[in-house]
């Protein structure tokens, strides 16, 4: 049985939108209940975390933003050693692949199809999760390098994680494989699949609350077969494959989904939001960035 079970949803709702500009009381209570976060515990853990980083030759010269460190503590439920391990993995990976953390070219915003390959839906789930939709078929590997697609994925992920609501509540991801083809399949190398696995699980402390795959293709079957033995049981249980995209309505309110998934929203155009996130990404460095609020 999955830890993320189907739910009966109302037709309409007024869930907190993304982005928002404050941390509501229920999120603070959830942080205390699930993450054991209180103002006192946060400051104690932060001081210990900083001390540990100062004693590590790989991190002692990096003056991390406090919000960035708190993000790591929240993502690991205040397990300080685990947070330090993840942060060191992040430093190691970014040192080798810093180009993947750069902003994308402004020219891509003239091509809405590519920008639409990584979309943040405008409303959160009832439990506060943000919904991230990756539509791989909107990226054409013959025209746009893989590195630029990874940059778009990375900047979207890193920037939405500057929202404390996302740090506390996590996010759910919809992988829509419609229109993927042999050109995408050629990029399913062990190296690329390792990046897909390593970044969210070992480097960036993401609270993954659900992974949903629609319009499954041979590319998904291959990737899943390779990655499955290495995935934590929690992730395996939270991954769902849907033969019909409308099955997403068992897990999401219709008011949060676009029409192609059986929801009430029109086709999502996130060009403006992605442009703002891309602009923010230009200031992203190894030390992290402050939260948005």
From TrEMBL:
Give a GO molecular function annotation for the protein. phosphatidylinositol bisphosphate binding
Polar residues biased stretches: 1-15
Positions of the region Disordered? 1-21
- Please report the stretch or stretches of sequence annotated as the CRAL-TRIO domain: 102-269
- Output the superkingdom of the source species: Eukaryota
UniProt xrefs under SMART domains: SEC14
Q: Where is the signal peptide?
A: none
Instruction: State one Pfam family annotation.
Output: CRAL_TRIO
User: What name does UniProt use for this protein?
Assistant: Alpha-tocopherol transfer protein-like
């Amino acid at each position: 049985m999955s830890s993320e079970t189907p739910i009966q949803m109302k037709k309409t709702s007024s869930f907190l939108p993304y982005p928002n500009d404050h941390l509501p009381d229920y999120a603070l209570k959830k942080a205390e209940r699930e993450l054991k976060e209180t103002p006192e515990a946060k400051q104690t853990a932060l001081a210990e975390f900083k001390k540990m980083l100062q004693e590590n030759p790989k991190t002692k010269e990096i003056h991390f933003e406090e919000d960035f460190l708190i993000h790591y503590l929240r993502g690991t439920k205040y397990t300080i050693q685990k947070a330090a391990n993840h942060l060191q993995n992040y430093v190691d990976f970014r040192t080798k692949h810093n180009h993947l953390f750069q902003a994308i070219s402004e020219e891509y915003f003239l091509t809405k199809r590519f920008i639409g390959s990584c979309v943040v839906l405008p409303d959160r789930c009832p439990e506060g999760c943000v919904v991230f939709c990756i539509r791989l078929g909107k990226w054409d590997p013959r025209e746009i390098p893989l590195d630029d697609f990874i940059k778009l994925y990375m900047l979207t992920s890193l920037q939405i994680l500057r929202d404390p609501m996302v740090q506390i509540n996590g996010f759910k991801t919809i992988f829509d494989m419609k229109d993927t083809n042999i050109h995408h399949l050629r990029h399913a190398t062990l190296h690329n699949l390792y990046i897909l696995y390593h970044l969210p699980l070992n480097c960036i402390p993401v609270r993954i609350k659900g992974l949903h795959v629609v319009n499954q293709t041979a590319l998904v079957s291959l990737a899943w077969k390779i990655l499955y033995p290495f995935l934590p049981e929690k992730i395996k249980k939270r991954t769902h494959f849907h033969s019909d995209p409308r099955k997403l309505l068992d897990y999401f309110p219709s008011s949060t989904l676009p029409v192609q998934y059986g929801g009430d929203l029109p086709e999502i155009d996130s060009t403006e939001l992605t442009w703002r996130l891309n602009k923010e990404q230009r200031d992203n460095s190894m030390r992290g960035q402050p939260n948005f609020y």
